Automatic annotation (TrEMBL), chain A:
PANTHER family in alphabetical order: ABC-TYPE SUGAR TRANSPORT SYSTEM PERIPLASMIC COMPONENT-LIKE PROTEIN, D-XYLOSE-BINDING PERIPLASMIC PROTEIN
Protein name per its UniProtKB record: Autoinducer 2-binding protein LsrB
Pfam families, per the entry: Peripla_BP_4
Positions of the Periplasmic binding protein domain: 29-283
Sections of the chain in a coiled coil: none
NCBIfam families, per the entry: RhaS
Matching InterPro entries: Bact_Solute-Bind_Prot2, Peripla_BP_I, RhaS, SBP_2_dom
GO cellular component: outer membrane-bounded periplasmic space
Domain of life according to the entry: Bacteria
Automatic annotation (TrEMBL), chain B:
GO MF, one example: transmembrane transporter activity
Function of the protein: Part of the ABC transporter complex LsrABCD involved in autoinducer 2 (AI-2) import. Probably responsible for the translocation of the substrate across the membrane.
Transmembrane segments: 26-46, 66-88, 100-123, 129-150, 170-191, 223-245, 251-272, 302-322
Species this chain originates from: Pseudoprimorskyibacter insulae
Name used for this protein in its record: Autoinducer 2 import system permease protein LsrD
Topology of this chain in the membrane: Multi-pass membrane protein
Subcellular location(s) per record: Cell membrane
Main location: membrane
Amino acid sequence: MSVMKKILSSVAVAATMMASTAQAEDMRIALVVKALGIGFFEAAAKGAEEAAAELGDVEIIYTGPTDTTAEGQIEVINSLIAQGVDAIAISANDPDALVPALKKAMQRGITVISWDSGVAPEGRQMHLNPSSNALIGNMIIKLAADHLPDGGQVAVLSASATATNQNIWIDEMNKVMGDYPGIEVVTTVYGDDLADKSYREAQGLMQSYPDLDAIIAPTSVGIVAAAQAVADAGKVGQINVTGLGLPSEMAGAIDSGASKSFAIWNPIDLGYSAAMIAHALATEAATAEPGAAIPMGRMGSVTLDDTNSGAMADPFVYDSSNIEQFKSIF
Amino acid sequence: MSSTDRFIPDRLQSPLQQRLKSWETLLLAVAIGIFIANSLASPYFLNAWNLSDATFNFTEKAMIAFAMALLIVAGEIDLSVASIIALASTAMGAAAQVDASTLTLVLVGLSVGLACGAFNAVLVCGMGLPSIVVTIGTMSLFRGISYIILGDQAYRGYPTSFAYFGQGYVFWVISFEFVLFAILAVIYGVILHKTNFGRAVYAIGNNATGALFSGIRVNRVKSILFLLTGLMSGVAAVCLTSRLGSTRPSIGLGMELEVVTMVVLGGVNILGGSGTIPGVVIAAFVMGLVTFGLGLLNVPGIVMSIFIGALLIGVIALPRLWQKWRG
C-alpha cells in the first residue's frame, strides 16, 4: 500500500503548502472579482493592498472564480463565509443570483459591499460606482475644452442612437455646456460601436466640418476608430480625439498625438476605495444608509443615494504622462 | 459453490472487477486523505455548517453525473447537460413570470429536461448519429434558445416556497439537495447494479452488436438513458435555479465538463463498458472536498482547476502504474 501512503502524504503536503499565512487578529477583507486573471481586477487588487498597507491591521484576500459565472462566485462566497472573513467587497457576475449567498453572509455578521458591477440592493449594504453619469458628462466635454482655450468646434461620435449609457452621458454633457463658453457642439453621429462604421463616421465629420477641433467619443470602440481616422487623414495636431477609452487600446493614439488625453475609471483607485469602505463599515466607523458620507482615505468620501449606492470620483484622465504605466493593466 | 456448478461471473471481465475494486478503495483513500489534509490545513474546515455549505459544490453536478455514468458505461455521452439546465431554468423563469405555482415550476423544469433528453435520443438512437457530435450541437442549440429568449435580461420573482429546493434544510445541517443526492445515488446504484436494465447497459457498453444479437433492445436502452440524463439535468435545473433565485442564460456554464470529470474520476471507463455508482459518489465527495478545502485556503480558482486536473490524471494513471509495478 505504499502508493496509497504516497498519495496521502503528497495531498497533505500540497494542502499544507497552500495554507495561507493568515493572522487571526487581522481584519480580513475579501476582494471578490468577476474572474481571476483580468488586468482590470489585478489592478483593483493592487489598490486594495495599498489601502491595507495604509490601514495597517488589514489582510486582503483577493479571490474569484476562473470564469465569470455566478455559480463560481457563490462557491467563493461560501468558502469566505466559512472562514468568517470580516468583509466581502464584490464585483458581481450577476446582480440577482448572488443575493441568497450574500444575504447569508450578512446574516453571519459579514460586511458586504459591491463595487464596479453591482448586486441588487437586498444583497449588499452599499454599492460603489466608479463614477456617476453627471461626472462622466462633465468630464468628456472638459477633456475637449482643456485643449481649446480659445473655444472651437467639437463633434460627438457616440455608440448607437439607442445606447442608454451614451445618451445619458451626452445629456449630462449638454447640461454643463454653459460652463465651457466658446465651445460649440456641432453634431452627434453614431458609429454603433462598430470599428468600421465609427471610422467612416469620423471621416465624414472631418469632411463636413473642415474647422473641427475635437471629436468626443464616449465609447471605447468609437474613440479608437476616430483616432485612427484622424491619424490616417493626416490631421494629427489639428483635431484632438478624446472621450472614454481603454489605456491598452489608446496607447498608440496617445503616442501618435491623435489623442491628447482621454478618461476612464481607474481600477487601482476603485480597489483602494472598496477596501477603505469595507474597512470603515466593518469597524462600524461608518454606517451604510441613504445620505451617509463614507470615508475612502485619499479618495475623499462617497455620499450614498436612496439605493445606498454612490459614485467614487471623476473618471481618471490618461495622457502621455501615465499611459505607459496603465496600458499593460487594462 | 461446488465444482460441478457452472460458474457464471458476476462481472463480464473478472480482472476488471479486481481493478474496479482497487479503484474505489484508492478513491476512498484519496477522499479520506483530502478530508484529513483539509482539517489540518484550515481551522474552519471541521464545522457542520461549513461542511454542509460545501456539499452544494457537488450535489447538483452529482445528480447529473449518476445518469451520465450510465450513459458513458453504455458507450455514449451527453455534453448538452449544462445547456439543458439553462433551457429548463429559462422555461421555469418564464412560467414564474405568469405566477405559476411551485409545483408547476418543478413540472416545467423536469418536462423541459425530459424533452431535451428525448431530442438527443431521437438524433442519436433514431438517426444513428454519434452522440458526441449531436450533443455538442444541442449544447449550443439549447443554450442558444435561452440567450434568444433572455438576452442580457434575467428572470426573477420565483415564489418563496420554490427556494426550498436549493436553499432548504430537511434536518439541522442536512440540506434538501443533499438528501436528494443520497436518494438518487441509491436509486441509480440499484438500477445499474441490481437490475436487468443495468446488466443491459454494461453489455451494450462492452459490445453493442453482441448485445443486440443477444436480444437486448440497444436503441431502446440508450434512448432511456438519454431521457434519464435529460430528466436529471431538469432536476439539477430546479435545484440550481432555486438556489440562485434567478435565471440568466449563462446559468451552469461549463458544468458539463465538471460532470464528465466526476464520472471519469469515479472510475467509469470513458470508452464504456465499466464503472460503478459508488465510484461516482466518492468522486463527487472528492471533487467537493477538494474545491471547498482549497477555497478555504483562498487558493485561486486557476490553481484549483490545475489541482482537479492533476487529481484526475493521477487517479486514472495510478492503478495502471500499480499494475505494472506488481505485474
